[in-house]
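Single Protein Entry

Contents — chain, fold
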Amino acid sequence: MKNIIELDQVGMVYETGSGSVEALRDIRLTVREGEFISLVGPSGCGKSTLLRVTAGLRPMTSGSVVVDGVSVTKPIQKVGMVFQSAVLLKWRSILDNVLLPAELAGLNPRKYRDRARELLELVGLGDFTRKSPNELSGGMQQRAALCRALLLDPPLLLMDEPFGALDAMTRDDMNLELLRVWGETGGQEGRKTILFVTHSIPEAVFLADRVVVMSPRPGRIAEIVDVGLPRPRSMETRATPEFGQYTLDIYDTLTGGQAKSDETPRQAIA
């Protein structure tokens, strides 16, 4: 599979009234087409900034970003973004919210109505096209936001803690829904490439082919973990020793060995 994202020595420095803040330093990452990558790290380490730099929404201060063979110097069009909040326009119906990217791109939204309805059917919202956002639960709103991001069929999907505000059961349901929409049960060909930011280590492991672990600010890549868990994944996957070991290893990287240092006291007590 070809590389769709290439980040080479990417750095990002913010200028503020009180001085400079270095958000990212020397980020080097290559993402293959159809790959699911999770980004985890402490708050403020630059995960969201990295998504915005990749999409061309923030200019980097050093290094280079290439998406689908083209250097990123301005906002790119072939990308869908999903944020922690669904950000649906409350005065528009769910169907009209999903059609918004076509309008913003200067396209005729009528030509995309069938696709919008198909996407809403795919995520179980086929009976809610005429509803307003405040008539839907938080999980249903996030499903609609995902449909909106997929409307123009972008090859790249950037997701910034999209399920962070949901309750645990709804979050688990959305994880499974995302994998289904991504096409987990099929081959890698034809899948979207996904960069997924999360603070949840179990969520990162459950979803991803690889987990990129970032250091505290300035954000750097501390480790990249290949997740060898078989697909398709299910809630039973989380109960396996392999899943637990991946989760523990990443936690250990983030905490500087805290998990291992805690083992001896627990064993002594036992």
Notes: Residues 35 and 193 are 5 Å apart (CA to CA). Strands lie at 3-16, 19-32, 36-40, 62-67, 70-71, 79-82, 156-160, 193-197, 210-214, 221-226.
